[in-house]
UniProtKB/TrEMBL annotation, chain A:
The keyword Cell membrane applies. It is found in: Cell membrane. GO terms for cellular component: cytochrome complex; plasma membrane. Belongs to the cytochrome ubiquinol oxidase subunit 2 family. It is a multi-pass membrane protein. One of its GO terms (biological process) is aerobic electron transport chain. The chain crosses the membrane at residues 6-32, 53-74, 80-99, 119-140, 160-183, 204-222, 228-252, 264-286, 306-327. GO terms for molecular function: electron transfer activity; oxidoreductase activity, acting on diphenols and related substances as donors, oxygen as acceptor. It comes from the Bacteria. This is Cytochrome bd-I ubiquinol oxidase subunit 2 apoprotein.
TrEMBL record, chain B:
This is Cytochrome bd-I ubiquinol oxidase subunit 1 apoprotein. Belongs to the cytochrome ubiquinol oxidase subunit 1 family. Pfam families: Cyt_bd_oxida_I. GO terms for cellular component: cytochrome complex; plasma membrane. It is a multi-pass membrane protein. The keyword Cell membrane applies. InterPro entries: Cyt-d_ubiquinol_oxidase_su_1 (IPR002585). Its main location: membrane. The chain crosses the membrane at residues 12-37, 58-80, 100-116, 123-145, 180-203, 215-233, 318-340, 352-374, 402-423. The lineage of its organism: Bacteria, Pseudomonadati, Bacteroidota, Cytophagia, Cytophagales. It comes from the Bacteria. It comes from Pontibacter ummariensis. One of its GO terms (molecular function) is metal ion binding. It is found in: Cell membrane. Keywords: Cell membrane, Electron transport, Heme, Iron, Membrane, Metal-binding, Transmembrane, Transmembrane helix, Transport.
Length: 338, 442
């Protein structure tokens, strides 16, 4: 049963990165859009992510619940030593979620919109930045339960070059996912061209930040190179992700919207797979040799069984609805009223 | 402010904030479903406008509820890592099922809010009902997790280790049913009176009376039925608490001395030092009756509790008095309202009657907050009753006070923005819905 639970954990992290990430990315794209086009971008965005944004963010909650029910030791170590970045990420989530809804449901449209928009755009950057920082810190091996000063224990556990580089990489990936997604949603040629250019830009940013991650890893002594190139699965995944870049640029220029969406998702999945596989089952890499492994830190079997069944049952209930939700809003309604 | 106190305050603040949105998220979909149903049945466009106006309000509340809930699921670990490391696998079952309920709720809400004129009308209506049902389910599940903290079940402790874990038994602990029942009814009472009060105020201002009168009636009926049921379920809760948490019951009642034929103490100022209550009204034998069903039964007092494990009496007692006082007042208002409907009195046009509802509008939520203070403060100093002390559960990270100030600032400003938005929403009703059937253009 533990493998069922672990699969769901990986799946919800991946889906959060893909769907929630595209959602954050929409805000990032908005931030990097020139003033005169912003309201058009916003319009497209509201059509596409409005109906699904709630559902997209549920994946984070599922991941957290799986962690605290199934792997409580891991959850509590993260909560203690990554307290500060977690709080900042939460502030980002609060600000973003509320600003997004406020700006669309405020009955009066006036200068308050400027405030909502600004909060929305900035928090769309801060949240994935800190998500990335947290992800980077989990594997960087800088969390030190033996540390005796506040800075060592609660600040340098997450504030280092590697985690910041992962944070920037995450931001770029989100922006990339969103632009790719928006291309297919834009109704007019001119918007489609704009999003295609954005996608190219964001893709280059992601590749640059990816290089930065490797440099930072070398500086901070994180064995990233060994993880990624040291085993066949990770190596294949990385090569697949890199080679597909060529195909991606080709399809981008051809305007194949459906295909690039799949490809972008594939690339992100491969990156996650490459890093995740390399140190599975270790989830948190601690300072020194001791790591927190998923297999050794799981809850007792009765809990894992119950959790596994709850997840299986839940997905049987949820998946059909979820597909219908995404599908139902693909068709464009004649008069868009709500 | 020491770290433990800061952590407790931050937890209380976050939960106190979330519960308001949670109640609205659980209950408003049912109000909307009724209005929506009436529109589909009668074709009266006012009902359609009402459904839409409410759904815009709910979208605002829902987002705030969702983000504050997300914060909570991290806060449990950020503030109480030691608690979660042990309790997670035991009381996690409701949370894992709740994930499903939330998901269904979020999906159905997407359909409902964005589905106007896109889907079959009855399918669209049904998605609204699904939002409500899954909201209720998630409320019940999370309360059952809280009930486990009051009435731990489903594990044994051997040499300090938690063994023989049975998550299902933990979920169906002794307290889950009374707490979930009481909470569900409370959500209906609080939201019903809050919404009715707002619409009563608009009727008083003579604005869009047709619109607000229909809204008022739907909300008031839900609220009044719930308010009448509330004391019954509260009585069940009290009997239950007397049995499993005598310390909490004694603190609620400020019942310092174990005695037979115990009196019910109403009001008064508990004097924790001298173990007496000043200026209180005492009804002889009543507490024994409420707990045992006879006027002479023995009721354990705070003197039976080891001093180290005494809950704060004054706060618990005041909170309990506030809840029960409000409960009784709402019963009265509800009886008046049903009397009005029954006798077809024209009171609805009387200003004093509407003002009564305006007055009552914040009270339900006040009672909800007070009730949670009773439950949570009355459990102190335990985080898991009789098993783990709150002081042993708190995070080792220093400086939690700053985090508390930060969250206070955020929740206060968020509340202000929500109130501001709601005010604009209501102010715009005449503009948006005055003429018949005018679609809301964005
Ligand atoms: C509209 C709100 C409301 C109203 C009018 C009342 N309550 Fe209540 N009460 C709650 C809202 C609430 C609550 C917020 O929902 C609580 C907190 C925890 C819970 O399960 O319900 C609660 C808890 C709570 C508890 C503690 C349960 C526990 O710790 O397990 C008791 C004994 C009562 N209530 C009893 C009453 C009585 C005798 C009432 C008489 C009128 C009453 N309540 C009215
Ligand atoms: C008695 C207390 C609680 C009740 C009755 C309650 C109920 C609810 C309800 C009905 C919702 C739906 C959101 C809405 O409609 O606005 C919600 C949202 C949420 N709650 Fe709570 N909740 C409580 C406490 C908690 C706690 C302690 C946690 C964390 C562990 C939590 C986590 C969440 C999360 C993550 C969401 C967001 C889900 C979404 O996006 O729909 N809740 N809660
Ligand atoms: C939403 C309704 C709720 C409200 C308003 C509420 C209120 C409070 C308050 C006032 C405290 C502080 C008590 C004190 O330290 O003196 C507290 C503590 C706490 N509550 Fe609740 N509570 C709610 C529901 C829940 C639920 C559903 C859970 C978990 C499943 C929960 C878990 C906790 C924890 C872990 C603490 C901190 C430890 C403690 O003080 O015992 N609460 N809550």
């Amino acid at each position: 049963m533990e493998y069922v639970v672990i699969t769901f954990l990986c799946l919800s992290i991946l889906l959060y990165l893909l769907l929630g990430g595209a959602d954050f990315g929409a805000g990032i794209v908005e931030l990097f859009t020139s003033h005169k086009n912003r309201s058009r971008t916003r319009e497209t965005m509201h059509h596409t992510i409005g109906p699904v944004w709630e559902a997209n963010h549920m994946w984070l909650i599922i991941a957290v619940v799986i962690l605290f029910v199934g792997f409580p030791a891991i959850y509590s170590v993260m909560s203690v030593y990554l307290h500060i970045p977690l709080v900042i990420m939460l502030l980002g989530i609060i600000a973003r979620g509320t600003a997004f809804v406020f700006r669309h449901y405020d009955a009066v449209v006036d200068e308050m919109q400027v405030v909502y928009n600004r909060i929305f755009a900035y928090s769309s950057v801060v949240t994935p930045l800190f998500l990335g920082i947290i992800a980077g810190s989990v594997i960087a091996g800088k969390i030190d339960p033996q540390a005796d000063s506040f800075l060592e224990a609660y600040v340098f556990s997450w504030l280092h070059l590697f985690s910041v580089a992962v944070g920037l990489f995450t931001v770029a990936l989100c922006g990339f996912l969103a632009s790719v997604y928006l291309i297919g949603e834009a109704e007019e040629q001119q918007d489609r061209r704009r999003f295609t250019n954005k996608a190219r830009g964001m893709n280059m940013a992601a590749v640059t930040c990816g290089a930065l991650v490797f440099i930072a890893a070398a500086v901070e002594g994180v064995p990233l190179v060994r993880w990624v190139f040291g085993n066949a699965v990770s190596l294949t995944a990385v090569i697949a992700a890199t080679l597909s870049l060529i195909l991606l640029w080709f399809w981008l220029s051809q305007g194949k919207t459906k295909k690039i969406r799949v490809l972008a998702g594939f690339q992100v999945t491969m990156i996650l797979l490459a890093v995740g596989y390399a140190h599975f089952p270790d989830f948190i890499i601690l300072r020194g040799a001791s790591n927190l492994s998923l297999l050794e830190n799981q809850a007792p079997p009765s809990t894992m069984a119950a959790l596994g069944w709850a997840l299986l049952l839940g997905s049987v209930l949820i998946l059909p609805f979820l597909f219908y939700l995404f599908y139902g809003f693909q068709k464009k309604a004649p008069g868009y009223l709500h | 402010m020491d770290d433990l106190f800061a952590a407790r305050s931050q937890m209380a603040l976050s939960l106190g904030f979330h519960i308001i949105y949670a109640c609205i998220g659980m209950v408003m979909p049912f109000f909307m479903a009724v209005a929506h149903y009436r529109w589909l049945r009668t074709n009266d466009p006012v009902y359609k406008n009402l459904t839409k106006a409410w759904s815009r309000g709910v979208a605002i509340f829902f987002a705030t509820g969702a983000v504050s809930g997300t914060v909570l699921s991290f806060e449990l670990g950020l503030l109480w890592p030691e608690f979660m490391a042990h309790a997670g696998p035991i009381f996690g079952m409701p949370f894992s099922l709740e994930g499903t309920a939330f998901f269904i709720e979020a999906i159905a809400l997407g359909f409902f809010l964005y589905g106007w004129d896109r889907f079959n009308r009855w399918f669209h209506w049904f998605t609204g009902v699904v939002v409500g049902v899954s909201g209720l389910a998630s409320g019940i599940l999370v309360v059952s997790a809280n009930a486990w903290m009051n009435s731990p079940a489903g594990f044994d402790i051997v040499d300090g280790a938690y063994v023989n874990i049975d998550p299902i038994a933990a979920m169906f602990n002794d307290a889950w049913f009374t707490q979930a029942l009481h909470m569900t009814i409370a959500a209906f009472a609080a939201t019903g009176f809050a919404v009715a009060g707002v619409h009563a105020y608009m009727i008083l201002k003579r604005q869009n009376v047709a619109f607000h009168a229909r809204a008022f009636k739907i909300a008031a009926i839900f609220g009044a039925v719930a308010a009448l049921l509330q004391p019954l379920s509260g009585d069940l809760s009290a009997k239950d608490v007397a049995e499993r948490q005598p310390a909490k019951l004694a603190a609620m009642e400020a019942h310092f001395h174990t005695q037979e034929a115990a009196p019910l103490i109403i009001g008064g100022i508990p004097d924790e030092e001298n173990k007496k209550v000043d200026y209180a009204l005492e009804i002889p034998g009543m507490l024994s009756f409420l707990v045992h069903g006879n006027f002479t039964g023995l009721v354990e007092g705070l003197d039976k509790i080891p001093p180290a494990y005494l809950p704060p009496v004054t706060v618990t007692h005041f909170a309990f008095q506030i809840m029960v006082g409000i409960g009784m007042f709402l019963v009265l208002v509800s009886l008046l309202y049903f009397g009005t409907l029954w006798r077809k009195q024209p009171w609805l046009t009387k200003r004093w009657f509407l003002w009564l509802f305006v007055l009552a509008s914040p009270l339900g939520f006040l009672a909800v907050e007070a009730g949670w203070v009773v439950t949570e403060v009355g459990r102190q100093p335990w985080i898991i009753y009789g098993v783990m002390l709150t002081a042993d559960a708190v995070t080792p990270m220093p400086g939690i006070a700053y985090s508390f100030y930060l969250f206070t600032a955020i929740y206060v400003s968020l509340s202000l923005v929500v109130i501001f938005l709601l005010y604009r929403q209501i102010k715009m009703v005449p503009v948006l819905y005055d003429t018949n059937e005018k679609p809301l253009a964005r």
